[in-house]
Amino acid sequence: MDIPLELLVVIFNFVLKPYHLEALCLVNRAFNRFATPLLYRHIYIFPWHKDSKSKVFSLFRTLVECPHLAAYVQTLEIRDFPKGLSTEDHSSLSGRCVRAIRQCTNLKSCTWTKDGSLHSELLESLLDCQQLRELEINGNSAEYDPLILTQFQSLRKISLIMPSVHIKASEATLRNLRIICKASTHVTDGLLESLSPNLAELECLHIFGCPKVTHKGIGALVSANRSGLFAINLEHLSLSFDMSVFRTLCHRTQAFRRLRTITLTVPAHTSMLDWARDVYDLVSSAPLEAFQLYSTDVLSDTQMAGDFWQKMVTGHGSRLKRISVHRIRVNLATLHTICSQCPRLEQLFVETERRDLETAASSFSLARNLRSLHITFPLARSEALMPPATTMHTALSISSRCSPTLTHIGFNTQVWQVRRVVCFYENGEEHMEPTLVPRENPEIPEQFLVGTM
Q: Averaged over 361-372, what is the pLDDT?
């Protein structure tokens, strides 16, 4: 080969799709040597994968029988698992999973979210993975002992999905806590208050779908924090959450002195004027880089006052890299303010009217570092329904007016990757033109891509 072998791993790192890496493994021994570790480095099984449940059997049989391949695994993401098996088959598969995980000696991140598939022996096998730093599991602890979670010595991130009443934390190394529910009544202010002494070094907090959590529980967590949070997501919490009281507490404790990212949902039946004022005051002293906001009402016609956005841009525009606003209409004047006064803006997610796209495109062109742009139309309006060909043509037209830094663009549920090709004018002069292609993301199918750019 003309190319130095040591460059293969650099080149192969740009190959995203597993079946492309698989093909590289079959070229020759040299390619196999460098591509195989990359093929097994990140393993994931999603419910929408074809034959996902049978792939679980094949995967763990391979990892048990080939420990040298198991040693390559750094990320293991299992979001589907066979159910309805006979007792013998279930016991056999569970035992194989335990043996396989113990051979994943370099595992750094594990996700296991299928309800009822996680049991104590499987969780204990993860204790043998000395490099494990991130754990995402189904929080229904009917099949496992939640006290096992307190035995992990080096976890920095834990995510609990639909947790049961038993949540334990004594992990002083924990930096990232995510609790995701639909409408759990198990996660309460009292629970968060009991956890707060053991989460003093927390950097990222994400609480979703907990109607029994108010400013009191979140306040206990941020008050116990020593160094200040980097990121906080507060979504679908109690209607009794008092933003004014929470703002006062955070100011008193300087909890947001290092805050870079915040995500909030606009509560239903609230005074938008007062709430917006409290939110601005809440983050006024934070070195904010990402601001994400959305309404809980899909059919609402929610709008934020223009002076709110002007104050946000004036206070944070020089740092903001991401602005994401869902189910809240952004008028054209505000859009112009955001795009013209946020010089570092890289990601923009907004809702606007279809009839305003031409004017909006002029604003998008002012964001000279924009990399991802996603536009949604109000779902309650018939004009939101656009034929796919029309949607793609409109997206391409907007892409051509945006900064050449743009790499992704989306309309509602459709997302494309923007590539630029060399074209020639009639006089032979070269120029670049954008073209839209399906997004290269091996983990998430197109219909689930909204908000992931």
A: 96
Helix (H, G, I), strand (E, B) or coil at 308: helix
Contact predicate 294/288, CB 8 Å: no
The amino acid present at 292, given as its one-letter code, is Q
Strands 408-411 and 414-424: antiparallel
Residue with tokens 């035992």: 95
Q: Which of 211, 275, 263 is nearest to 237 (CA)?
A: 211
Distances (CA, A) of 424 to 338, 397, 435: 34, 19, 15
Tell me how long the chain is.
Answer: 453
pLDDT at 318: 96
313-354 pLDDT, tens digit per residue, is 999 999 999 999 988 888 899 999 999 999 999 999 998 888
Integer angstrom CA distances of residue 412 from 115, 377, 433: 30, 7, 24
For 446, which DSSP code? Answer: G
Average pLDDT taken over every residue of the chain: 88
The distance between the two most distant Cα atoms of the chain, rounded to a whole number of Å, is 74
**How far apart are the two ends of the chain, measured CA to CA in Å?**
37
**322-329 and 290-295 as β-strands: parallel, antiparallel, unpaired?**
parallel
**Backbone phi, psi, residue 187, to 5°:** -90, 110
Instruction: Give the amino acid at 375.
Output: I
Interatomic CA distance for residues 450 and 349, integer angstroms: 10
- Region of 430 (left: φ > 0; alpha: ψ -120 to 50; beta: rest) is beta
For the question of whether the overall pTM of this predicted structure is more than 0.85, the answer is: yes
Q: pLDDT digits over 220-237, tens only? A: 999 999 889 999 999 999
What residues are paired with 263 via a beta bridge? 233, 292
